[in-house]
Amino acid sequence: MSSNEPGGRAQPTVGELVSDLGENLSRLVRDEIRLATTELKESAKHAGTGAGMFGAAGILALYGFGVLIATGVIALALVVDWWLAALIVALVLFAVAAVVALLGRKQLQQASPTPERTIENVKRDVAEVKEARSA
Fold this sequence. Notes:
Helices cover about 85% and strands about 0% of the residues. By secondary structure, the chain is mainly alpha-helical. The longest helix has about 60 residues, at about 15-75. It is rod-shaped, with a radius of gyration of 31 Å.
């Protein structure tokens, strides 16, 4: 049974409070799980992008190595014009590979394996529940 306060509002019963607590706790857990899922998806996206860029850098470096080998062959067999052109192409490929590798490294550094915001929120929620319980 609920008693009336002087302002005319009814105080909730213990059963209603327990029911509200259960609903709020359930909603809180669902929200935290949703946040953790979002964080992990974002982290996986950065890891995938970084890994793809490292793969692209490896392929470009492989082509650069092939061109560098061809440059050596051309340099021995032909006049300066041919090997100089091949050397310039090889250097450009290596420069592009370096840029892509640095971008991939940056993406991998942004990937975090733990959902940090979710962990902080859960810690805060536990502290608030403990504080409310002791009050």
